[in-house]
């Protein structure tokens, strides 16, 4: 121990810690060993006498009685041999903080490998004793890169330091965790691998969310399905399904109509009105239908309108009225399904198309007569009688044979047996077709339909819209008023849209014009009934047929339905409704 203390005293003067003048000519070699300053072989060449070495022979350098084998400047160490029993062993003297410590990693009679050297000489568990490169020469080091300190200091020794304080320790943005003598990098959530080397996306981060999403999607779909099913069942009962399914009307499901109309695609839209839109569809058996889909606004009022229209159309059975094909009660506002009428509206043929069908006066007269028969059926044969309420060319459809079909009963009114009119809560109809007395009094009667029919006759004769005007010098006159005055003045031939083929035909056209004027009387009491109008138009049609040669109308492939009109030559025969009345439905 005295020797160790003596050597520690020498560390005070170690040349890396000291400076000063050196003798210009000093011997620095003892054999092949260099003697660097502050050591020297002469007193004038050493820092002090404490650093004076003795070159005893060419291969032996002494520090006192201690043999010095090597002095290394770069790591501040000396390799020495101790006197006495340890004289055959080589040891290291290492400078640390200006002091030298004797490094003795072995005990007497112990051999390397038989006993762990680090436990014998180095300070603490975090040090290790390694071969210094020479036989029987050893050095103490801190165990791993994660430790720092003096491996010979038995007070502090080698201690762990926190590598995670370096922000670049984990290059893949993982979480750094310090461990004794080392550190780990945990990959970010959803990735796996050694965070020090690489991080890869985990298959579970894709699979687990997919499974969870699929699970909740399935649950959501099931809940939605159950909710929609219960909603449909509730709507079916609320819309009178239990009662209506016993009537002779087909019940459609919502899914059937969605499929039939391609989810109500705009390409299938036939028209749109205040109630909603009408879509073409095709159901099983290639039957083409027209679905009347209401708007979602004012659902309670829409439901009342639906029930009202259904109540009316279910008791009508006439070949010149659009037939109800079925109903759908699963929606909040039920859907009406009508037969599909393929050739559009009379309005389109009069005003929008260069329609060949209307080039013939006979076809115009036939369409007028068929419409009159349908209205007479509603006024005289339906029980209770029905006021259509919105007769106009848009609501008169033409089927594949160009026969007239009256449609749209959304504004129709049922008349009780004890009353011949109804006081409307609001005026409904279309400008130009509305009965002027209905506008002023709010009272609607079957004569209101007569006035509207008279406007349609004017459209057929003139191909003018009822809201159009005829311009005269200094004034513009509505077409209806102009037509009435022209008929009374016998000048109506100036405004009709076709030429008569004979004098007799022109006479019959004049008769139809006079019927139109009677229908357009401002006083409803003076207007004829639809039965009188239907009988007169049918008779005129028969007389015209008997006076003219039947024309071959190959362009339109449409013939006058003489048989049907003949059956109404003197009177209108009421057909029994196949559906009966519906007064008990709602």
TrEMBL record:
<keyword id="KW-0808">Transferase</keyword>
<feature type="domain" description="EGF-like">
    <location>
        <begin position="160"/>
        <end position="200"/>
    </location>
</feature>
<dbReference type="Pfam" id="PF07714">
    <property type="entry name" value="PK_Tyr_Ser-Thr"/>
</dbReference>
<feature type="domain" description="Protein kinase">
    <location>
        <begin position="264"/>
        <end position="544"/>
    </location>
</feature>
<dbReference type="InterPro" id="IPR017441">
    <property type="entry name" value="Protein_kinase_ATP_BS"/>
</dbReference>
<dbReference type="InterPro" id="IPR025287">
    <property type="entry name" value="WAK_GUB"/>
</dbReference>
<keyword id="KW-0325">Glycoprotein</keyword>
<dbReference type="GO" id="GO:0004674">
    <property type="term" value="F:protein serine/threonine kinase activity"/>
</dbReference>
<keyword id="KW-0732">Signal</keyword>
<dbReference type="InterPro" id="IPR011009">
    <property type="entry name" value="Kinase-like_dom_sf"/>
</dbReference>
<dbReference type="InterPro" id="IPR001881">
    <property type="entry name" value="EGF-like_Ca-bd_dom"/>
</dbReference>
<keyword id="KW-0723">Serine/threonine-protein kinase</keyword>
<keyword id="KW-0597">Phosphoprotein</keyword>
<keyword id="KW-0677">Repeat</keyword>
<feature type="transmembrane region" description="Helical">
    <location>
        <begin position="201"/>
        <end position="227"/>
    </location>
</feature>
<dbReference type="GO" id="GO:0005524">
    <property type="term" value="F:ATP binding"/>
</dbReference>
<dbReference type="InterPro" id="IPR001245">
    <property type="entry name" value="Ser-Thr/Tyr_kinase_cat_dom"/>
</dbReference>
<dbReference type="InterPro" id="IPR008271">
    <property type="entry name" value="Ser/Thr_kinase_AS"/>
</dbReference>
<keyword id="KW-0245">EGF-like domain</keyword>
<dbReference type="InterPro" id="IPR000742">
    <property type="entry name" value="EGF"/>
</dbReference>
<feature type="coiled-coil region">
    <location>
        <begin position="530"/>
        <end position="557"/>
    </location>
</feature>
<keyword id="KW-0547">Nucleotide-binding</keyword>
<keyword id="KW-0812">Transmembrane</keyword>
<dbReference type="InterPro" id="IPR018097">
    <property type="entry name" value="EGF_Ca-bd_CS"/>
</dbReference>
<keyword id="KW-0472">Membrane</keyword>
<dbReference type="GO" id="GO:0016020">
    <property type="term" value="C:membrane"/>
</dbReference>
<feature type="signal peptide">
    <location>
        <begin position="1"/>
        <end position="21"/>
    </location>
</feature>
<dbReference type="InterPro" id="IPR000152">
    <property type="entry name" value="EGF-type_Asp/Asn_hydroxyl_site"/>
</dbReference>
<protein>
    <submittedName>
        <fullName>Uncharacterized protein</fullName>
    </submittedName>
</protein>
<dbReference type="Pfam" id="PF13947">
    <property type="entry name" value="GUB_WAK_bind"/>
</dbReference>
<keyword id="KW-0418">Kinase</keyword>
<feature type="binding site">
    <location>
        <position position="293"/>
    </location>
    <ligand>
        <name>ATP</name>
    </ligand>
</feature>
<dbReference type="InterPro" id="IPR000719">
    <property type="entry name" value="Prot_kinase_dom"/>
</dbReference>
<dbReference type="InterPro" id="IPR045274">
    <property type="entry name" value="WAK-like"/>
</dbReference>
<keyword id="KW-0175">Coiled coil</keyword>
<keyword id="KW-1133">Transmembrane helix</keyword>
<keyword id="KW-0067">ATP-binding</keyword>
<keyword id="KW-1015">Disulfide bond</keyword>
């Amino acid at each position: 121990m005295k020797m160790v203390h003596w050597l520690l005293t020498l560390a005070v003067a170690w040349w890396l810690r000291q400076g000063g003048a050196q003798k210009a000519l000093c011997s620095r070699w003892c054999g092949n060993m260099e003697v660097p300053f502050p050591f020297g072989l002469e007193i004038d060449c050493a820092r002090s006498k404490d650093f004076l070495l003795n070159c005893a022979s060419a291969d032996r350098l002494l520090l006192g009685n201690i043999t010095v084998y090597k002095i290394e400047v770069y790591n501040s160490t000396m390799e020495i041999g101790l006197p006495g029993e340890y004289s055959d062993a080589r040891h290291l003297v290492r400078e640390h903080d200006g002091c030298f410590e004797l490094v003795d990693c072995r005990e007497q009679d112990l051999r390397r490998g038989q006993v762990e050297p680090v436990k014998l000489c180095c300070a603490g568990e975090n040090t290790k004793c390694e071969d210094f490169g020479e036989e029987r020469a050893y050095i103490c080091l801190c165990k791993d890169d994660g430790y720092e300190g003096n491996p010979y200091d038995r007070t502090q020794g080698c201690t762990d330091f926190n590598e995670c304080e370096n922000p670049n320790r984990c290059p893949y943005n993982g979480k750094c965790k310090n461990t004794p003598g080392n550190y780990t990098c945990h990959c970010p959530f959803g990735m796996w691998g050694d965070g020090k080397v690489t991080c890869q996306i985990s298959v579970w981060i894709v699979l687990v969310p997919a499974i969870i999403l699929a699970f909740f999607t399935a649950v959501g779909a099931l809940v939605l399905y159950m909710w929609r099913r219960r909603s449909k069942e509730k709507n079916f009962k609320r819309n009178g399904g239990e009662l209506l399914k016993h009537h002779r009307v087909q019940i459609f499901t919502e899914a059937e109509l969605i499929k039939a109309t391609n989810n109500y695609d705009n390409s299938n839209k036939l028209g749109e009105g205040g109630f909603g839109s009408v879509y073409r569809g095709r159901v099983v058996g290639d039957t083409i239908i027209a679905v009347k889909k209401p708007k979602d606004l004012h659902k309670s009022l829409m439901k009342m309108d639906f029930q009202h229209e259904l109540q009316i159309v279910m008791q009508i059975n006439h070949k010149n009225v659009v037939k109800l094909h079925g109903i759908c009660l699963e929606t909040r506002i039920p859907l009406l399904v009508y037969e599909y009428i393929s050739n559009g509206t009379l309005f389109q043929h009069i005003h929008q198309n260069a329609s060949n069908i209307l080039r013939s006066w006979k076809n115009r007269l036939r369409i007028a007569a068929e419409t009159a028969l349908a209205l007479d059926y509603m006024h005289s044969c339906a029980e209770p009688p029905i006021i259509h309420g919105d007769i106009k060319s848009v609501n008169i459809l033409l089927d594949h044979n160009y026969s007239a079909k009256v449609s749209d009963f959304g504004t129709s009114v049922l008349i009780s047996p004890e009353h011949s009119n109804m006081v409307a809560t609001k005026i409904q109809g279309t400008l130009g077709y509305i009965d002027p007395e209905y506008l002023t009094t709010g009272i609607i009667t079957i004569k209101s339909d007569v006035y509207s029919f008279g406007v349609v006759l004017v459209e057929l004769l003139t191909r003018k819209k009822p809201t159009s005007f005829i311009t005269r010098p200094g004034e513009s006159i509505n077409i209806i008023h102009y037509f009435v005055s022209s008929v009374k003045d016998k000048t109506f031939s100036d405004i009709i849209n076709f030429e008569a083929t004979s004098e007799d035909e022109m006479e019959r056209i004049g008769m139809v014009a006079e019927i139109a004027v009677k229908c357009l009387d401002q006083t409803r009491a003076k207007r004829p009934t639809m039965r009188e109008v239907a009988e007169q138009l049918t008779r005129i049609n028969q007389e015209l047929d008997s006076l003219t040669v039947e024309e071959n109308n190959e362009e339109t492939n449409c013939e006058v339905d003489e048989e049907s009109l003949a059956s109404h030559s003197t009177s209108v025969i009421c057909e029994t409704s196949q559906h009966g009345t519906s007064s008990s439905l709602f």
